[in-house]
Specification:
The chain has ten helices and nine strands. It is an alpha/beta fold. The longest helix has 15 residues. It binds 2'-O-acetyl adenosine-5-diphosphoribose. The site of 2'-O-acetyl adenosine-5-diphosphoribose has 24 residues, from loops.
């Protein structure tokens, strides 16, 4: 009887989530990304629902609802003014940058964000340099904190600092009350923007869901548009969320560390 020497077998390890996610990205034709507060956490912007998050320390019904604005606009204004001041000290992080470079390379837009902090836009402009930033500019479905909007006629304007006296900013056109151009609880999202985001997700075969607890609708329904059209979801988040079970792969980690590796 002859004896064949057999090579010792390497244990067959399943590929890591990062490797599987990379493979899915390489195979995908159209990609969208839905981001939430978690992508800005490493820029020191507080999230909403984590420990230390804004909604753990402040009551949204007093600060971020249309009813609160109508009852007590000054308090709402002062809170947004505080957030504006704080955001002016924050910068895009490696996660925003990697995502911007990725979409600039692909030359096709795909970033949808719930964030009002403007950091995707800043990353797009910085990473595009002298080139056009368009492919990396986000659809901001919850608005932009750096803009004002007239509560009556809807005219948008660059934000102006709040004065020290009791007067609040007024619309230059109709004299109506100005307010930060963000979606408040109890308000509808801009339907044209939401439709654009939804259509983009439904046409995509891969949706990256980054740093969102995925509990606020209609935003959280955007990845489901990709899924229902036959596409897949990759989640990037240090924690499980309501969407994890729908995801093909969940990469556990901070966006600022995962995205540069994932999208290199
Ligand atoms: P949340 O505060 O609900 O969720 C933040 C998510 O980010 C959590 O799932 C965290 O686990 C995750 N996270 C934390 N640090 C992270 C990191 N370094 N990298 C990646 N992920 C990280 O914030 P959103 O889901 O964005 O609405 O909240 C949705 C909406 O609720 C907001 O747009 C805002 C809020 O009320 C409006 O203002 C209209």
């Amino acid at each position: 009887m002859t004896h064949h020497a057999t090579a010792p077998r390497e244990p067959l390890l399943p590929p890591s989530p990062l490797t599987r996610a990379r493979d899915l990205i390489a195979e995908a034709h159209r990609i969208v990304a839905l981001t939430g507060a978690g992508i800005s956490a490493e820029s020191r912007v507080p999230t909403f629902r984590d420990a230390g998050g804004l909604w753990r320390n402040y009551r949204p019904e007093e600060l971020a609802t249309i009813g609160a604005f109508e009852r007590d606009p000054r308090t709402v204004w002062e809170w947004y003014e505080w957030r504006r001041g704080f955001l002016a000290t924050c910068k895009p992080n490696e996660g925003h940058r990697a995502l911007a470079r990725f979409f600039l390379r692909r030359g096709e837009e795909g970033i949808v964000t719930q964030n009002v902090d403007g950091l995707h836009t800043r990353a797009a402009l910085e990473e595009a340099g002298d080139g056009p930033p368009d492919a990396a500019l986000p659809i901001e479905i919850h608005g932009a904190i750096a803009r004002d909007r007239c509560n009556d006629c809807g005219l948008r304007a660059e934000a102006e600092p709040l004065g020290d006296d009791d007067t609040l900013p007024r619309c230059a056109d109709c004299g109506g009350m100005r307010r930060p151009d963000v979606v408040l609880f109890g308000e509808m999202l801009d339907s044209a923007l939401l439709e654009r985001a939804h259509n983009m997700a439904a046409r995509a075969d891969l949706c990256l869901v980054i740093g969102t607890s995925a509990v606020v609708y209609p935003a959280a329904g955007i990845p489901l548009a990709t899924l229902h059209a036959g596409g897949r979801i990759i989640e990037i988040n240090p924690q499980d969320t309501d969407l994890t079970r729908a995801a093909e792969v969940a990469v556990r980690g901070a966006a600022g560390e995962v995205l540069p590796e994932l999208l290199a």
